[in-house]
C-alpha cells in the first residue's frame, strides 16, 4: 500500500499550496517506466517523513492543466514546495539519498 495520495487539480491548492508542511509533488504518468521505478523510493520517503513533510502524486494524463501550469515536459518531475512556493525541482529519476537530503533540509528549516 502506498503512503502517497494521488491528488487532482481541485485538491492541489489545499494539499500543496496551502499545506503547513513542505510538500514533494511527483508529477508522473502510469505508462512511464522510470515513474514506476521511483514508486518504492517515494513510498519509503513518505513513511520516513510522515508528519514532517508530505508527498503527493499528480497524474499528468489526468491533470494536463497542472502539468502545463508547472511546465512539466518530462516525467517523472519532482517539485518541492514550501509555504506554497516552489523551492526545488528534479526532472527524471533521483537517488533516495538526494531526495532525503532535500526533504530533510525543508522539514528542519
Question: Can you tell me about this structure?
Answer:
The chain is of the alpha/beta class. It has one domain (5-107): Glutaredoxin. The protein has four helices and five strands. It has helices at residues 9-17, 33-48, 64-69, 96-107; strands spanning 5-6, 23-28, 54-59, 77-82, 85-91. It has a five-stranded mixed sheet, with helices on both faces. β2, α2 and β3 form a beta-alpha-beta unit. The longest helix is centred in the middle third of the chain and has 16 residues, at 33-48. The mean pLDDT is 95.
CATH superfamily label: Glutaredoxin
Count of alpha and pi helical runs: 4
As laid out across the biggest beta sheet, the strand order is: 1-3-2-4-5
- The amount of helix comes to 25-40%
**What's the CATH C level?**
Alpha Beta
Broad structural category:
alpha/beta
Radius of gyration: 12 Å
CATH topology, anyone? Answer: Glutaredoxin
Indicate the low-confidence ranges by residue numbers: none
Distance between the termini: 30 Å
| Element order: H for helix, E for strand | EHEHEHEEH
- Label the CATH architecture: 3-Layer(aba) Sandwich
In one word, what is the shape?
Answer: globular
Main sheet record: 5 strands, mixed
What does the average pLDDT come to?
95
Count of DSSP strands: 5
Strand-residue proportion: 15-25%
Overall structural domain count: 1
